[in-house]
Amino acid sequence: YVMAGIYIHIPFCLQKCNYCNFYSESDILLKNKLINTLLTEIKLRASYLNNETVRTIYFGGGTPSLLLPNEIQQMIDAVFSLFQLSDEIEITLEANPNNLTEEYIKQLSATAINRLSIGIQSFYDNDLQTLGRIHTAKQAEESILLAQKYHFNNLSIDLMYGFPGLTLEKWKSNLNKIKNIEHISCYQLTLEKKSLLYQKIKNGILLSTPEDEIIEQYHYLISFAKKHHFIHYETSNFCQENFESKHNTSYWQDALYLGIGPSAHSYNKESRQWNISDNKAYITFFENLLSLEDYDLKGENVVFEKEILTTDMRFNEYIMTSLRTIWGCSLDYIQQHFGKSYLKHLRQQLSNIQPDFYILSPSSLRLTEKGNLFADYIAASLFV
Questions:
Q1: Pairwise CA distance, residues 48 & 27, whole Å
Q2: Residue 207 burial by CB count (10 A; 0-12/13-18/19+): exposed, middle or buried?
Q3: For range 341-346, the mean pLDDT
Q4: Which residue among 74, 130, 272, 363 is the one 20 to 30 A from 347 at the CA level?
Q5: How far is CA 231 from the centre of its chain?
Q6: Residue 301 has pLDDT above 70, yes or no
Q7: CA distance linking residue 116 with residue 16, whole number of Å
Q8: Please, where are the H alpha helices in the chain?
């Protein structure tokens, strides 16, 4: 049984990164109004998690570190007053190195935030320019030292590989700088059609990285992680023992979550809903609301869309996300939550998959290191 999570989306960025496809705006003038609206939504939707205990709060974005620490604490207080909380609650703030000045981190250390996720991507200035990041390599290194100085001892660092201009030597050096960090997320560049980087590669301004170089970078990452005792607990995530992201783990293990803010997603095992990706429309909607009844009546098609999930959809999603993790999918969980026929289907479909891609035990189905490379393909083969 995995406890529930709350995700709060802060949809502001001073400038969009060249690879990004997430919703955010640069119009920070709306910030105060937006914070008030987030507080309203938290209040109105307090019953969404059916009184389940909340184990994680996650401020994602956009750039949550554009908010002042006292503004962040205000939202945490609202959650604390309305929800049942785990004694070991994990509260994460995603942050950009350029916001993490000494004064900011000092103020942050006085809030309830106990985990920082710093979006570094690379420790080389020319790579940061390619990616459209607005921090420098120097700020990246300093932000880590400052976070440690103020006792943030549950740090997560994001790095990216497989992008134009990243050599294996640079990749080795990037990883070497974070070998003593508690958690690392390493993402292979995904070229999103709407992103600037996609356009640049398409128009020949930048050369895309050859497939064999990307695979080489990935293999180096795996051996680096082993050497430095990182547990490779999800396709793109690595941690020292007991430092996995509790928040993301709940997504992968089919827990309930409430998404607050523009474009945020919520899931309660029966349906999934997502808020409109438009700050102004989101604010206006909540300003005109009178009550929760009003939200339920008017909500759909105005501020959020909703899809009711069939058992097949939920099963497929569980397979897709759980197979990406070190724990794999639980056969008991499948039988209890989806039924025996789904377990039977899973066992039948497995006969079409190479035996060295997976490990089937009496309690779980997990992928081998070799299978990990084909996680999406394997999951799709097991779908109903």
A1: 30
A2: exposed
A3: 98
A4: 272
A5: 18
A6: no
A7: 21
A8: 31-44, 69-82, 102-108, 125-131, 137-149, 168-176, 196-202, 211-227, 246-252, 279-287, 292-298, 311-322, 331-337, 340-350, 369-372, 375-382
The CA distances from residue 142 to 105, 139, 166, 316, in Å, are 11, 5, 22, 43
DSSP class per residue in 91-128:
EEEEE-GGG--HHHHHHHTTSS--EEEEEEE-S-HHHH
Tell me what the mean pLDDT of segment 331-342 comes to.
Answer: 96
Instruction: List all residues 6 or more positions away from 9 whose beta carbon is below 8 Å from its beta carbon.
Output: 23, 60, 61, 62, 259, 260, 261, 262, 263, 264, 275
Beta bridge partners of 258: 6
- Report pLDDT for 118: 98
Residue pLDDT, tens place only, 134-143: 999 999 999 9
* Residue 48 confidence (pLDDT) above 70: yes
pLDDT (mean) for 178-196: 93
Q: Enumerate the β-bridge partners of residue 238.
A: 184, 232
Write the Ramachandran bin of 132: left for phi over 0, alpha for psi from -120 to 50, otherwise beta.
left
Measured CA to CA in angstroms, residue 200 lies from 12, 195, 212 at distances of 24, 9, 21
Asked if residue 295 lies in contact with residue 257, where contact means CB atoms within 8 angstroms, the answer is no
Query: pLDDT tens digit string along 76-108?
Result: 999 999 999 999 999 999 999 999 999 999 999
Query: What's the rounded Cα separation, in Å, for the pair 173 and 167?
Result: 10
Report phi then psi at 248, rounded to 5.
Answer: -65, -35
**Tokens 């690392």 — which residue?**
184
Q: Comparing 10-14, 113-117, 287-291, which segment has the lowest mean pLDDT?
A: 287-291
Contacts of 294 (CB under 8 A, 6+ apart): none
Using only C-alpha atoms, what is the Rg of the chain? 21
Say which residues have a Cβ less than 8 Å from residue 365's Cβ, sequence separation at least 6: 323, 328, 329, 331, 346, 350, 358, 359
Among the listed residues 47, 52, 60, 58, the one whose alpha carbon sits nearest the alpha carbon of residue 2: 52
Give CA–CA dist 35/41, Å, rounded: 10
Neighbouring C-beta atoms of residue 25, cutoff 10 Å: 18
For residue 299, give both structure tokens: 């909500």
- Label residue 274 exposed, middle or buried (CB < 10 Å: 0-12, 13-18, 19+): middle
